[in-house]
Amino acid sequence: MAKKREGRGQSRTQQAAKFLGVSVLAGAVLAGLALPAAGALGLVAKTSVEGFDDIPANLKTPPLSQRTTILDADGGAIASVYSRDRTVVGLKDMSPYIQKAIVAIEDARFYQHGAIDLKGIARAVNQNAQSGGVSQGASTLTQQYVKNVFVEEAGDDPDKVAQATQQTLGRKVKELKYAIKLEEKLGKRKILQNYLNITFFGEQAYGVEAASQRYFSKHAKDLSVEEAALLAGIVQSPTRYDPVNHPQAATARRNTVLRRMADLKAITRAEANAAAARPITLKVSRPKNGCITATDGAGFFCDYVREVLLNDKAFGATREVRSKRWMQGGLTIRTTLDRQTQKAIQASLSRHVYEDDPVAGASTVVQPGTGKILGMGQSRPYGFGTNQTQINLSVDHKMGGGAGYQPGSTFKPIIAAAALEQGIAPDQQYSSPFKMAYPKPVQTCTGTWDGDDTVNNEDPKEVGPYDMKEATAKSVNTYYVQLISDMGICPAVTMAQKMGLQRADGKPLKQVPSMALGGQEMSPLNMASAYATFANEGTYCSPVAIESITDAQGKALNVPKTSCRSAMSKKTADTVNTLLKGVVEDGTGKQAGLSGRDSAGKTGTTDRRYAAWFVGYTPNAAGAVWVGDPRHQRQMYNITIGGVAHDKVYGADTPGPIWRDLMSGALAGRPALTLPTVPIGAPKDQGNDDGKGKGKPQGPKSNPGKGGDKPGGGWHLPGFPDILGGGDGGW
Known about the structure:
Largest sheet: 5 strands, mixed
Low-confidence stretches: 1-24, 28-50, 133-137, 682-731
Helix content: 25-40%
Radius of gyration: 35 Å
Number of helices: 23
Distance between the termini: 102 Å
Mean pLDDT: 84
Shape: elongated
Structural class: alpha+beta
Strand content: 5-15%
Strand order of the largest sheet: 2-1-3-11-12
Oligomer: single chain
C-alpha cells in the first residue's frame, strides 16, 4: 500500500499518477488548441496537480437566456424581448436529421468516446504536424458545450466573453475537467440536447429552435435533411456560412455536412446526393425584438408591463436582476390587453391626431371593477425616429412617462364627489359670479390657506347662482372655487387619494384651492382609473396590466394584483353619474356622447391651451384622452390637428370625438349596460352643440384681474404659473 505523507493527503505515488493524468490532459489540450508540438513541454510544465484539484468538480450552469413573450388577454402575441433569441426544446422537438448532422460534422465519434477523444487527439496532432500549423482541433461536443456555458455566463460583457473564449491552457484544462464530470452526470443524449439549445447559429439565433424559425420559419422538429445539414454547417463559422449573406459558401458547407452524414451512414448516399442537388430555400423571419415591434400600437403598453416588472421586488432583489429576468428569463407574460380596445384606441388617435402634428394625443382605457388596463396608445409611435418617442404619455414619470399634464376641469368631479360625501347636496347653490377673489381663509389638512388671487369664468355672461348639476355641465370655475372653499381642501385631497390620484411627478398633492380646477399634473391612466370608480358604484380598483406569468420551466409566478377599496358611497357615485351624464347629453361634452348606450364624462382644458382632455366612462369601460404638447411649449391656438383647423382647442372638440370613436370601437358588439343615476334638478342652459357655450368668445382674451396675461378666462396663483385649471367653463 502506498504511504501517505503527513498533512499532504496523498502519497508520492498518487501525486505522480495525478501529474501523469494532468500531463495527458495537457497533451489533449494542445491538440485541442492545435498548437505546434515544440511548445508542449513548457506548457505541460506550467500545469500543476494542485491547479487541477482547485477546479470545482461540478460545472455551474446558469439558466439559458431565453426570449420573454408578452401576450394579450386572449393569448395572442404582442411582442418578444430578448438579449439572446432562444427557445429551449427537448430532443423530441428536434428533427432527427439535425441531431445526426451536428454529430457528423462536429464530433463523429461522439457516442464512442468519453469526454476526451484520444483518437481525435492523435489524428489532430498528426494532421497539425504534417501541416506545420493549425489544421485540425479535437474538441468534443461535450467540451464545446462547456465552452458555450462559459460564454453564456459571460452574457453581453465583452471582457467576460473574451475571457471565456481565450485560447489558454488553463481554460482548456478547466474545460476538460468539467467535460469529464458532465459525461458522468448527464449522459450523451442530454449533452446533445443541451448543446443544440445553447450554440449560436448566426443571425441573432441561439439554439436550434430559434435558428429553424429564423431561416425557415418552422419548428426544429420539422427540419428536412438538407435544412438540418445547413444549420449544422453554420456552427463552425456563423458569419462565413451565413446563408442569408453568403449563400454559395453556405451551400458548399451544407454539402460537406451531407457527405459526412453519408460517410457515417447517418443517411444513405442517395439521400445525401438528392439533398445536395436541391438549392437552398430560405423563408427568413427577421428578428423582432423589444416593445418597438409590438402589434397594434401596443408598444407603450408593452413598455408599461416592463416597468411593472422592473419595479416589483417579487421578480428580483435589484433592478439589474429584474432587468436580466425580463430580457433573458424566458417568461410568458399574459396581460390584460384587449385587442379590440387597443385597435380602437389606435385607430381613433390616428384619425384625429397625425403623428407629425405639432401636438400629440394619448389615451388609456381601463375596466371598472377589475382595474384591468384594456388598451393604451398614443398618436406618436413608439420608436426612435422622427415624430416617434419612447416616453409613455399615459403614465406617471416613475413608470416611464413624463411629468404629467394638468387635467383642468376633468378634476371637478372629484371635488363634487368629496362635497357629496361631506353632506353637501347636489342642489347646493353658489353665487358663482363671472369673476371673484378666492375666498379665504380655506381649511387644509394641516392648517389654512390664505392666498390672494382671482378666478373668472370663460364667458362674462356666465353668472350664477348655479347648482352643482348646472355648474358641472357648464364647467363653471367660480362655482367650484366656492364649493372647495366651503367644504375645505382636506376632503378633496382625501377623496383624490382614495381614487388613486397622485401627481405624475410623484410629489404630494398641494393643498391649495386651485386643485378644484385641475392645476396639478396627472396622467391619463390615473384619471381613467379614478373615473372607473364612478362606474363601479364608488369602489376604486388600482390599475393592473398582468394576468399571469410563467417562467421558462412553466412554473407560475406571483403577479401584482389589483387592490380595490371603497372611495365613496354608492349614492355619491350614482349622483356623480347623473352630473356627468348631463355633461355628455346636454353640456360641454355633447360631442363625446355615445349613440345607443349610457355614458358619462367631463371635458377639460388648461391655461394657454397647453392641454385638452376628455375623461369618460360606461359601465363596461373608463377612458381618458389627452391632447397637447408633451414639452408644454405649444399653445393650441390657431392650430391644425388631424387636418382640422382650430382657432383654439377645447376639451369637447378634439379629445371628445377621439373618446367617442375609440369607445364606440372598443364596445362594439358588447352589452349596452345602464349607469345608475339619481333624480336631481335639471340645468337651465347648457350652451351650444359646438361645445363652446352660448356667447363664448372665439379667440384669446386677457384676464382683467390679476394674471391678466392669461388667455381664455385664466387665473393666476403663486407657485402655479401655467394654470387655468378648469378654465374650459362652457366647453
